[in-house]
Design goal:
Order of helices and strands: HEEEHHEEEHHEHEEHEHEHHEEHHHHEE
Helix content: 25-40%
Strand content: 15-25%
Oligomer: single chain
Radius of gyration: 22 Å
Largest sheet: 7 strands, mixed
């Protein structure tokens, strides 16, 4: 058994989501959003390097020793699955192992808003799931793929970096391809997928203009495209797509978004009241005629008002979703406060005065203190 499996086994026994290994500090566990060390000595450079090289293939070693980072999936000896990022830093190597449950999550288990199921019924267009790193985007998308797999007869092609949840084909055929193993780039993967008779294409990360452009083409030509972006909020997501492409394609991109963008789900993970878990809280945009017009006329800053008034179609602002989750006692109010945009609405739920902002009476603006942003 590779020695690194002992750390992973310990982390899983503690219920962690990630195991962090870095030179000069003890191993660390991510527990419900918080990072904490385990009782172990500080890891030495040669020690940690010997741990990680035990689980690398010869080709992965060749890549890593050229100074490049590695992203890959790893299955421990007892069957637990992890997404791994292996990297170099000033004192040596480092690694992060994220636990991937063997059981594919369901939309029911995640307790997502009902409108998410409706997104799975689309036959073409683009649905984006966004958020910063570690906010559960992959889990939400995996649940959507599982829902499609169980309810519709489709050809689903999933492009991932690396493959995380493994989807056995059920009512649909699910083809999973991994960056670096089966394809050289997401853009090439989408290009190939369009020749493979797909109904649904999942793009694990729309990280560059070429990938975004190919994903847009797929969505415009009769396919349902699910994708992710590292953006926070629906407006920032729309602006990011427009800004990612060359200026001479700006009008074309706006036209695509106004017609083929079906929905944007932007999520954060908020601690549950007992502190033993986290729940995904989502801002949701469902494209309609009003939003389409705002995109075309460069008035995306007015989109939040449409989200606020669009509850009848499943839309909601992040602050609305956080408030609803607090009132339903689904999340910890103080952690929700940290994720809120307009924190004044949340002050009455906060018992720890140390995290409350200072109100500037001159303009009633919130002047954040400490680490609250």
């Amino acid at each position: 058994m590779p020695r690194i499996d002992s750390f992973l086994k310990l982390g899983l026994a503690q219920g962690c989501s990630d195991v962090h290994l870095a030179v000069g500090i003890p191993p660390m566990l991510r527990m419900n959003g918080d990072l904490m060390p385990i009782k172990f000595r500080e890891l030495a450079d040669t020690e940690l390097e010997s741990y990680v090289t035990e689980i690398l293939s010869d080709s992965q070693k060749d890549v890593f020793y050229t100074g490049k980072d590695l992203d890959f999936s790893y299955v421990a000896e007892e069957g637990s699955r992890f997404r791994v990022n292996l990297f170099h830093k000033d004192t040596g190597v480092g690694a992060v192992f994220r636990y991937i449950p063997n059981e594919v999550p369901t939309l029911d288990k995640l307790d997502v808003p009902p409108v998410i199921r409706e997104f799975c019924d689309y036959h073409q267009g683009m649905v984006l799931v966004t958020g910063s790193t570690g906010t559960g985007k992959s889990t939400t998308l995996a649940a959507m793929i599982d829902h499609l797999n169980c309810t519709r007869s489709l050809n689903i092609i999933s492009l991932e970096d690396p493959i995380e949840f493994v989807h056995p084909s059920k009512k649909s055929q699910v083809i999973q391809r991994e960056l670096g193993t089966h394809l050289t780039s997401f853009a090439d993967g989408v290009r190939s997928a369009m020749r493979e008779d797909p109904d649904v294409v999942l793009v694990g990360e729309m990280r560059d203009a070429d990938t975004i452009s190919m994903a847009m083409t797929a969505a415009e030509t009769g396919h349902l495209v699910l994708g992710t972006l590292h953006t926070t909020g629906a407006v920032k997501t729309i602006d990011r797509v427009i800004d990612a492409l060359p200026g001479d394609l700006r009008e074309q991109t706006k036209s695509f978004l106004s017609q083929s963008l079906k929905a944007v789900v932007s999520q954060v993970l908020v601690k549950t009241p007992d502190g033993r878990g986290r729940k995904a809280v989502m801002e949701i945009l469902v494209n309609n005629r009003a939003i389409s017009k705002l995109i075309m006329t460069d008035q995306s800053h007015q989109i939040p008002s449409q989200l606020q008034m669009g509850s009848d179609t499943g839309m909601q602002l992040m602050d609305q979703a956080l408030l609803s989750a607090i009132e339903a006692k689904e999340v910890d109010p103080e952690d929700a406060f940290r994720h809120a945009l307009d924190k004044r609405k949340f002050q009455r739920f906060v018992s720890d005065s140390n995290i409350l902002p200072v109100i500037d009476s001159s303009d009633s603006a919130l002047v954040e203190t400490g680490d609250i942003v």
